[in-house]
């Protein structure tokens, strides 16, 4: 059992085991000894935000033990904010705390406590700031760790509305740091799917990611970034695509009239994409054996609704449901991501692919499609891996890097 004062902090051990220098440990000790403004008793230094194009991810670290000085300095407003954040699972109409992802007894910057994971649509940033102001956060918080494009886009809003400074960190640095930290801290974080095409036999299985390098990291958010990771500080962005989770949601809203990602996924779950897509067997009557193309492979997305190219086939379109359209949209986006990822893996000669991002949240359909595609097209040499905390790594990563300097 580790000591409660966390002198041999798990953060230091995790960073060291993943190849980081001792700088993380030094910054942790300095932050404890020097007590920078961000960690004074009258502030809340335990926030990390990843403000994406579609979704804002917020992590809140709640210390397990507080010092006597902190207890004496803690005002009623701060107690109320802590209680509000940790005791509720919903905030307003669109904010949610993913209680099932909560991590207890973890170590962040030399302190033990609980990590809470909260999300809300980035379009609701105005309401978030109004809520923060109404709860008195503006009187207590001086700095929030932030990453993602929204850290730049909304910086003036934070300053103007709630007098908050944003300590901004690089999006991809934060993603990798947060991912490695959580994966090493949570023993059940990494998994893969067995028999992904067989609903009766398909299972989630744990995967030992203790020796990770090299691997591809595919971050599926509003768009997609693909990174080749050789070490914790050795990576490069090798590809990406604008067709990601934002594309799926946007097209589904246009095609089906749904309003949220959850609604779109629910529609897709009960839909049949083969009523929309044209398959290889629809053209050949079976598979195209010469090139190893199975009959149930999509030959052309959305083509089947136009009856051999006749886009004005109203009768054919009328047989397609909203659920079918949502499923076909999901399959189209997922297949495109899978195809690009496979090409990148071949070019980089990397056999492990880790898929992350909020596109995968409540979305086992895409995970199984990706797992099946990686396995089939690589003849079993490519392993598709997934992580439980999908889209929160950037928020955790920027929190880990913060040392009190916002220059």
Description:
There is one protein chain. The protein is of the alpha+beta class and 407 residues long. It is built from 15 helices and 17 strands. The chain has helices spanning 10-17, 23-34, 68-73, 76-87, 125-134, 150-153, 155-162, 171-185, 245-256, 261-269, 280-284, 314-318, 322-348, 364-377, 393-401, and strands at 47-51, 55-63, 90-91, 95-97, 103-108, 111-121, 143-147, 165-168, 190-194, 203-206, 215-220, 224-231, 234-241, 278-279, 298-300, 352-356, 383-387. The strands form three sheets. Strands 1, 2, 3, 4, 5, 6, 7 and 8 form an eight-stranded mixed β-sheet that branches. The protein has a seven-stranded mixed β-sheet with strand order 10-9-17-16-11-12-13, covered by helices on one side. Helix 5 (125-134) runs parallel beside helix 7 and helix 9 (245-256) runs antiparallel to helix 13 (322-348). The relative contact order is 0.15. This is pantothenate kinase.
Give the overall pLDDT as a whole number.
Answer: 84
Give the number of DSSP strands.
17
Termini separation:
38 Å
Number of helices: 15
Poorly predicted tracts of residues: 1-11, 17-44
Keywords: ATP-binding, Coenzyme A biosynthesis, Cytoplasm, Kinase, Nucleotide-binding, Transferase
Pfam families: Fumble
Catalytic activity: (R)-pantothenate + ATP = (R)-4'-phosphopantothenate + ADP + H(+)
Protein name: pantothenate kinase
Task: Jot down its keywords.
single chain, 407 residues, alpha+beta, 8-stranded mixed sheet, 7-stranded mixed sheet, 15 helices
């Amino acid at each position: 059992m580790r000591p409660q004062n966390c002198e041999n902090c798990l953060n230091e051990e995790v960073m060291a085991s993943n190849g980081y220098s001792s700088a993380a440990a030094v910054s942790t000790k300095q932050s404890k000894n020097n007590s920078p403004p961000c960690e004074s008793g009258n502030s809340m230094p335990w926030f990390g935000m990843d403000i994406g194009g579609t979704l804002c991810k917020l992590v809140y670290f709640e210390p397990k033990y507080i010092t006597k000085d902190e207890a004496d300095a803690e005002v009623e407003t701060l107690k109320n904010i802590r209680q509000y954040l940790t005791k509720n699972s919903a905030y307003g109409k669109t904010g949610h705390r993913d209680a099932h992802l909560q991590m207890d007894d973890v170590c962040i910057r030399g302190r033990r406590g609980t990590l809470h994971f909260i999300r809300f649509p980035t379009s609701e940033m105005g309401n978030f700031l109004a809520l923060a102001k109404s709860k008195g956060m503006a009187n207590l918080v001086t700095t929030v760790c932030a990453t993602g494009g929204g850290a730049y886009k909304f910086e003036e809003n934070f300053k103007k509305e709630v007098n908050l400074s944003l300590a901004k960190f690089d999006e991809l640095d934060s993603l990798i740091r947060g991912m490695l930290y959580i994966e090493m801290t949570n023993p059940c974080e990494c998994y893969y799917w067995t028999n992904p095409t067989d609903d009766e036999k398909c299972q989630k299985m744990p995967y030992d990611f203790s020796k990770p390098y090299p691997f591809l990291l595919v971050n599926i958010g509003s768009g997609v970034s693909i990174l080749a990771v050789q070490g914790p500080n050795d990576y490069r962005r090798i590809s990406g695509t604008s067709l990601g989770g934002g594309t799926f949601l946007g097209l589904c809203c246009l095609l089906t009239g749904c309003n949220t990602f959850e609604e779109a996924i629910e529609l897709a779950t009960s839909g049949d994409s083969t009523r929309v897509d044209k398959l290889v067997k629809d053209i050949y009557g079976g598979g195209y054996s010469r090139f190893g193309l199975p009959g149930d492979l999509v030959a052309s997305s959305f083509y089947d609704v136009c009856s051999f190219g006749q886009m004005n086939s109203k009768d054919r379109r009328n047989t397609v449901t909203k659920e079918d359209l949502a499923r076909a949209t999901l399959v189209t986006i997922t297949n495109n991501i899978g195809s690009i990822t496979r090409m990148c893996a071949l070019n980089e000669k990397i056999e492990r692919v880790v898929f992350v991002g909020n596109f995968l949240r409540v979305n086992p359909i895409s995970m199984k499609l990706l797992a099946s595609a990686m396995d089939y097209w690589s003849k079993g040499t490519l392993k598709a891996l997934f992580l439980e905390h999908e889209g929160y790594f950037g928020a955790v990563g920027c929190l880990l890097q913060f040392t009190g300097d916002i220059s």
